[in-house]
Amino acid sequence: MFLEQATPSTAPELQAVILAGYGNRQSCSSVLRLYPLTDGGAVPKALLPVANRPFISYQLEWLENANIQDIIIAAYPDARQKISGFVQKMYEGSGVAKIQIVEVPDHCGSADALRSIKSKIKTDFIVISCDLVTDIPAHYLINSFRLQNPAMTAFFYDAASLEASAERPASKDDSQVEYVGIDDKTSRLMITASKAELEDDLDLRVSMVSKFPVIHLHSQLRDAHLYIFRRWVLELIAKNKNITSIKNDLVPLLLECQHRDSVVKREGIDKLLAANTDPFRAAMLLSTSGHETHDNTVVCNAVVYLEGFTARGNTIWSYSELNRHMVKMHPDERIPGSAEVSPKTQVGQDSLVGEGTKIDERCSIKKSVIGNHCKIGSNVKITNSIIMDYAHVEDGSKLEECVVCPGAKIGAKSQLKDCKVGAQKILEAETVGKNETYADYLSDEESA
């Protein structure tokens, strides 16, 4: 279903699950893609700042605007307390939403996380990743879910929404390219495949082609990791322990069920469908509106967003670009009153300075985000960079396309380009680096 086909309506009762941090056999690479930003437990992924706001604040705001008030945040053990502190501060005394922060096993997959909190999910539910920022109106997704009566509604966006203004194309990273097949007539999602995981050509089953002979294959679309599921899908996850990842295990299984009855019976999905009749579907069967209904069949539909803005910050590059994009969205909030910026310093219209930050004279800040309570010395040049909270950049340093994590210190007259500096890391004066990672916690890949 494309954006223009949807119309506003009242949202049904839905719960929401925000996946605030998890890791498994598939997601280990995603952890490395953000190394060292979340390494060592200093900053959970859900609390990484985007335009000086924690990631998770964007998902909470989106759900609040959708009037979804029953929210579960699934967090791994090391992150739970820090996320809880932020949520309590954000919603203190408001009573706007019921938010549960639930600990899930460390190193578990996204589907494993859902299995571990199964008892807390009582209705059909939304699953959203903590690294997603989108402006799609929620009712477009919810309407599609209601009208199509699917097992799953998945949200896809055009990758160009982030890449269009970038100085270097994200498409150079083939691991991010996906093939997405959609039956345009019914909006059914039929194919999802990562280019990086394909050994050769894309294989299509005869059973699928015979049932759905016309499928539009996209290569520019990306999975937003935002899904709406029927409650019975959770029963499927609970009984099949081989389903550990939503994207890599659950979604392919549900897609296969659309054209292979043998899989539906093998997995016991026919019994789950029979035991979970949908009152709305029953009403639509009696309707003369012409909407297509599906009786005891598995349906997966796609909502594609070609307008507005959607992006995931799941790599260093996309995270940096996402920061710069969000700064442009709030040009009047660049420098708060609590910041001390020397009159002789230039802060570009494309930059953001955090609360309580001090920037000395003769500095140049361009296309950058400076966090809260940072100290920037004199004669410092910062371009296309992200400086997180409580970081210190001493006099005469030059940073270009860098990410500096909380509490790090860059010694005087250092020159860094395309570098990542881990949390609390101290670099000596006159450090010169290009494409370097400075961190106390080295991954196996970095230390090899």
Automatic annotation (TrEMBL):
Stated family: Belongs to the eIF-2B gamma/epsilon subunits family.
GO molecular function: translation initiation factor activity
Ranges of residues in domain Nucleotidyl transferase: 33-156
Primary location class: cytoplasm
Organism annotation: Polyrhizophydium stewartii
General function of this protein: Acts as a component of the translation initiation factor 2B (eIF2B) complex, which catalyzes the exchange of GDP for GTP on the eukaryotic initiation factor 2 (eIF2) complex gamma subunit. Its guanine nucleotide exchange factor activity is repressed when bound to eIF2 complex phosphorylated on the alpha subunit, thereby limiting the amount of methionyl-initiator methionine tRNA available to the ribosome and consequently global translation is repressed.
Keyword Thylakoid found: no
Segments forming domain EIF2B subunit epsilon/gamma LbH: 340-421
Protein name (database record): Translation initiation factor eIF2B subunit gamma
Ranges annotated as spanning the membrane: none
The protein's assembly and partners: Component of the translation initiation factor 2B (eIF2B) complex which is a heterodecamer of two sets of five different subunits: alpha, beta, gamma, delta and epsilon. Subunits alpha, beta and delta comprise a regulatory subcomplex and subunits epsilon and gamma comprise a catalytic subcomplex. Within the complex, the hexameric regulatory complex resides at the center, with the two heterodimeric catalytic subcomplexes bound on opposite sides.
